[in-house]
Amino acid sequence: MLIVLTGEKGAGKSTFLMELVHHVKKPCGVVCIRPKKGVLEANLFPSREKLILADESGDGGEEAVKFCSYFFRTAALAKVNETIAKGADTGTLLVDEAGFWELEGGGYAPNMEMIAARKLPTVLSVRKDALADICAKWGLKPALTVDVGLLGADKTCGIIRTAVLSHPPAQ
């Protein structure tokens, strides 16, 4: 069951997903946050490992790929994709966020077909301006699409928690 969480930049998609982690059984996947300006941190589940996924300076001393204003660390991105792939048959998969880089074959693109085919609860955040293209490219058919910017955090939380919790994860 695919749930798409959408909204404009800064609407609260990532913040909401970080909160959702505490309310689902066996969360797996990645939630990205910006702990400080110019840095993108990946929070991996179930390990709860945190790693710097990207930064705007490119001075991380690691191999990186530039997309828009960020330099994505190649090793970190590989670990994120590995974590998402490991979640294919387990628990509630949370993936934050798919957008234009995936449309160009980068980012989480290697996992998008698995995400589209997955029957277990999956919450995928997608930037509003990329939503139609992301759904078309991978044939995504969300059971539910929620715009956190329109509904606000409380209503979004109630809708998604009810949907996820009513569809128990595999044991």
Provide an overview of this structure.
The protein has helices at residues 13-20, 74-86, 100-103, 112-117, 131-138, 148-165; strands at 2-7, 27-33, 39-45, 50-55, 64-67, 70-73, 92-98, 122-127, 144-147. By secondary structure, the protein is an alpha/beta fold. The chain has a domain at 2-32 and 81-165: Rossmann fold, CATH 3.40.50. A nine-stranded mixed sheet has the order 5-6-4-3-2-7-8-1-9, sandwiched between helices. The radius of gyration is 15 Å and the shape is globular. 37% of the residues are buried.
What is the oligomer described by this structure?
single chain
What radius of gyration results from the CA coordinates? 15 Å
The rounded distance between the terminal residues' Cα atoms is: 16 Å
CATH topology of the domain at 2-32 and 81-165: Rossmann fold
**Rough shape?**
globular
How are the strands of the biggest sheet laid out side by side? 5-6-4-3-2-7-8-1-9
Please tell me the overall pLDDT: 87
What percent of the residues sit in helical stretches (DSSP H or I)?
Answer: 25-40%
Major β-sheet profile: 9 strands, mixed
Provide the β-strand percentage band: 25-35%
CATH architecture annotation name of the domain at 2-32 and 81-165:
3-Layer(aba) Sandwich
Spell out the helices and strands N to C: EHEEEEEHEHHEHEH
Instruction: List how many beta strands DSSP finds.
Output: 9
Reading off the top of the CATH hierarchy, the class of the domain at 2-32 and 81-165 is best stated as Alpha Beta
Structural class: alpha/beta
List the total number of helices: 6
In the predicted model, the low-confidence regions spanning at least 5 consecutive residues are none
